[in-house]
Amino acid sequence: MYRFSKRSLENLATCDEQIQLILRQAIQRIDFAVICGHRNKDDQEKAFLSGNSQLHFPQSAHNDFPSMAVDIAPYPIDWENIRRFKVLKKIIFEEAEKLGIDLVWGGDWSFRDYPHYQL
């Protein structure tokens, strides 16, 4: 069985309880890392300037506390392997459906954000 690293647990703890529930169920089925939950102003502006976000603070769902968004990646991380992100998405959505929680996936947007999920 898979488990979260210390860093993933720290990032997960900054997320809304519903996100935490979904991801705690999903980690039992697939290995992944929690890259980012809450982003403060400085972190959000860095994400914007680097091209990893299209939104300034406080417009991102990551800027709420607890965060209404999370970025995750299949482990081991290979940012170019989109197929693995899609496999992870399938499992995340199955677990969310079991819990009756609606999610949005950034991979469905015109600006493809494969690691991103939000309530």
What's the short story on this structure?
The protein is an alpha+beta fold and 119 residues long. Helices cover 38% and strands 13% of the residues.
- Please state roughly what percent of the residues sit in beta strands, choosing from under 5%, 5-15%, 15-25%, 25-35%, 35-45% or over 45%: 5-15%
Tell me the number of strands.
4
Looking at the structure, what is the overall shape?
A: globular
Low-pLDDT regions: none
State the secondary-structure class.
Answer: alpha+beta
Task: Describe how the helices and strands are arranged.
Layout (H helix, E strand, L loop, with lengths): L5 H7 L4 H10 L5 E5 L4 H10 L18 E6 L7 H18 L4 E2 L10 E3 L1
Antiparallel strand pairs: 1-2, 2-4, 3-4
Helix pairs in contact: 2-4
How would you sum up this structure, described in words?
By secondary structure, this protein is an alpha+beta fold. The chain has one domain (6-118): Muramoyl-pentapeptide Carboxypeptidase, domain 2 (2-Layer Sandwich). It has 4 helices and 4 strands. The chain has a 4-stranded antiparallel beta sheet with strand order 1-2-4-3. Helix 2 crosses helix 4 (82-99). The protein is globular and about 35 Å long. The model has no long low-confidence stretch (mean pLDDT 97).
